[in-house]
Structures are given as C-alpha cells and as structure tokens.
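Handout, section B. The chain below has 245 residues.
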Amino acid sequence: MFLKSSSFFTVFLAALLLFCSFDQSAEAALDPNDEYILVSGGPALRYWENYRREAHRHDQWWGNFIRTARIRVQQLQKATNDQINITWLVYRPGYVSREKEDGDPLIANIESVRDKYKIKLVWYDTTEQLINYLNAGQNRKQVKVSGFEYFGHSNKYCFVLDYSNHILGASKVFLHQRDIRKIDRKIFAKGAYCKSWGCHSAESFTKEWKRQTGQKMIGAIGKTDYSETWRQMLPFVSPGGRWSS
C-alpha cells in the first residue's frame, strides 16, 4: 500500500467520503452483548524496506495498523455511547521485531491503547490462532461477531499478517482466501459489518469471504493509502481505485 504524501485535494476528498459513509445509526444498533473484532497485521522492517526505492517503501512509521485500529475504536465507542464490546487482535511477532529495530517500547505502546480505551487485547502469532479466536474465543452460541475489520497488508488473495519482516516483500504468516472455509459461518450476528482496509481485497478475497461466511465484506479495488494516519484519518483508496463489496 502507498504511504506517500497526498495532495490537499485528495486528503480533503477522502475525509469527505469517509464522513458521508460513516453510518453511526447502524453502529448504534449493535448488540452490546456481541463482539466487534478489529484485527491488526504487523509492520515491515526498515532493514528490508530500505532496499527499495523510497517511493515504494512500506511502513516508514511502525504504527499504521495500530493508529487506524485506535481511530475505529474511538468512532465505534462514540457512535454507541460506549455500549460496545470490542476485541482487538494484534499480530505480536511483527511488533516484537520492529520494537528491536526501532528501539522503542512498541508492545507497551499498544497495550496503552488497550488500557486507555478499556478494550480487550488479544495477541496472536499464527493464522491458526486468529481463526481459533474467531470460532471459539467466546461462546459463539451466546456471543456473536457483530463486526470484523482488518488493518494491515493484503493482496487480492489474502490478508498478509506478516510482511517484509523476515524476507523482503514476502510473507510467512497470512490468511489466504482458501483458509476462510475454516471460519464457522455461524459465529456472525445477522448483518455483521465486515471490512478490509488493506489493498486489493475486493478483487478476490471479499468474494470468497461472502461465499464461505455468508457475510458481505467491503474491500478495496486497487491500493489503500495509510499516509494520512497521523492526521487521525482512516486509510483511503489510492487514485484509480474504489471501495467495493
């Protein structure tokens, strides 16, 4: 995904579209007994990304997928008057590696978000752990998944949970569309809101998500841009792309 600075017009348009599409009434209707799940993938290491030309480098800032999840926590809590049960799953190995590289307490920083917003934080190391939490992290007969949103690297076929952390431009941990069948379709509440904030998801992955889970997922055709995260903005679709379900 691109992390280049955007023009003022592009940023303004993205903010306007985000405002117009933010359905507070739908979020206010969420059952507070159900579970709204946010998932953050891991960042690339600068060690690998510095081999690329500057315009094509990823994750110059470590917190792209953390800050954006935090923004959604704030939005969801505000829209529901704090009557929402949020669980945040974060890919721990990626932040452990980046913490060593940056020399900053990234794990503690992530945990401080948990503490400030009083949400449940679940660390995961593998795709299997992520799927197992979705299926059985709660008693799914009583606690359904009312929402699922993903922040991280992705391509048209998978969520790339680990990217450019062990090997330049490659992933060792990912949720491929062929793995979606392992997710029990009965875990979701009726009309659950699902969205991928990663690149290219609507080009294949979201279609398989709907086929296997029965739930519509919004995703991007084209690349998503996290460059304005520091402005408290969610990712937007790069020029030439669009959101699609």
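Note. Residues 6 and 211 are 35 Å apart (CA to CA). Compare this with the example in section A.
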